[in-house]
UniProtKB/TrEMBL annotation:
Residues in D-isomer specific 2-hydroxyacid dehydrogenase NAD-binding domain copies: 107-300
Domain D-isomer specific 2-hydroxyacid dehydrogenase catalytic positions: 66-332
Keywords assigned: NAD, Oxidoreductase
Pfam family, one: 2-Hacid_dh
Entry's family note: Belongs to the D-isomer specific 2-hydroxyacid dehydrogenase family.
One GO molecular-function entry: NAD binding
Signal peptide: none
The UniProt record lists the keyword Transport: no
Lineage: Bacteria, Bacillati, Chloroflexota, Ardenticatenia, Ardenticatenales
PANTHER family documented for this protein: 2-HACID_DH_C DOMAIN-CONTAINING PROTEIN (PTHR43333), D-ISOMER SPECIFIC 2-HYDROXYACID DEHYDROGENASE NAD-BINDING DOMAIN-CONTAINING PROTEIN (PTHR43333:SF1)
Record's protein name: D-2-hydroxyacid dehydrogenase
Length: 337
């Protein structure tokens, strides 16, 4: 018995060798492409593929393709035509492989906002210390403040772990707050698999309660029908004056017009944004002109070891697939993630 595996990413020979070493049953083929059309052509070339590794998927599905399981190279699935893929095909995502990177990125932006590090960078051309430096840069500590984390999955749990290291109170928001453990892919020593760090849990219908208590809000939510513009004018009004807002989830979860208003009026103290409703962010967008906003170009998940971590996850899932064990990070199509 053999299991044909088609990899469409640019994995190195060392990566392929690591995967091949899992079992002699695996027949691994590699066709490098990142487009839906390219993946379709690769499947036409190898229609007996049982396991597909890809970042993009065809927009139409052919009955002669033998795919039974798709491992995605990304955590988000909002760019995937889920309605096209036959229901018998299992889909797993890459959730967890970039949790550390994204949590570090979020905290880097939080510290830059809170300590006004960008102001210090802009002041360098003056070649002098400001006379009012204490008034400018004496900033409230994170320690003792409250962080609200929207989406307590792999990324949110690593952010929660770091927040606890900073001495912060942690509030967690998720679809089912009664389900506190999360046994998806996690790097050893990171995250919060058992859900031990939050001081309180909140579910749908309790968002405003969480926001009212949060000095810093970090959004990691996926883009679904339920989360679209969840962060709107009403939500921002429920945040404490001067609160900080960070978005490393999806741009569609935020009403950007309402966010701009809250930042202009001072209702929010600042925002750090890595994702936007339209990407790249248009040059005329008012967010570019706000001094209390940090913009990063959707790179919070970018780090040199991305493929190494992705292969580690794929290797574990391949082992589980061959042993008929539950796969890590299986996508719930109804939920959209």
């Amino acid at each position: 018995m053999t299991v044909p595996v088609l990899i469409t990413l640019d994995f190195t020979p060392e990566h392929i060798a690591r995967l091949q070493a899992i079992s002699d049953e695996l027949v691994i083929r590699q066709v490098r492409t990142r487009t839906p059309e390219g993946v379709a052509e690769a499947l036409n070339q190898y229609p007996d593929t049982e396991v597909l590794y890809a970042i993009r998927l065809p927009t139409a599905w052919r009955s002669e393709w033998g795919v039974r399981w798709i491992q995605l190279h990304s955590a988000g699935v909002d760019h995937i035509p889920l309605d096209v893929i036959p229901p018998h095909v299992r889909i797993t995502n890459a959730s967890g492989i970039h949790a550390v990177c994204m949590a570090e990125h979020a905290f880097g932006m939080i510290l830059a906002l809170r300590r006004r590090l960008t102001d210090m960078m802009f002041a360098k051309p003056w070649h002098a210390w400001p006379p009012d430096r204490w008034a400018l840069y004496a900033r409230p500590l994170l320690r003792g403040q409250t962080m609200g984390i929207l989406g307590y999955g792999a990324i949110g749990r690593e952010i929660g772990r770091l927040a606890k290291a900073f001495g912060m109170r942690v509030l967690a928001y998720k679809r089912n707050p009664a389900q506190r453990a999360d046994h998806t892919f996690v790097l050893p020593g990171t995250g919060d698999p058992e859900g031990r760090f939050p001081d309180a849990w909140f579910g749908p219908g309790e968002l405003f309660r969480l926001l009212e208590e949060s000095h810093v809000v970090v959004n990691t939510l996926p883009a679904t029908r339920e989360t679209e513009h969840l962060l709107n004018a009403d939500a921002f009004r429920h945040m404490p004056p001067g609160a900080l807002f960070v978005n490393i989830g999806r741009g569609r979860t935020v009403d950007e017009t309402a966010l701009v208003d809250a930042l202009r009026t001072g209702a929010l103290g600042g925002a750090a944004l890595d994702v936007f409703e339209q990407e790249p962010l248009p040059a005329h967008h008012p967010l570019w002109s706000l001094d209390n906003v940090i913009i990063s170009p959707h790179v919070s998940a970018a780090f040199p070891e991305y493929d190494d971590f992705a292969v580690a996850l794929f290797a574990e899932n391949l082992r589980r697939y061959l042993q008929e064990e539950p796969l890590l990070n299986e996508v719930n199509r109804q939920h959209g993630y």
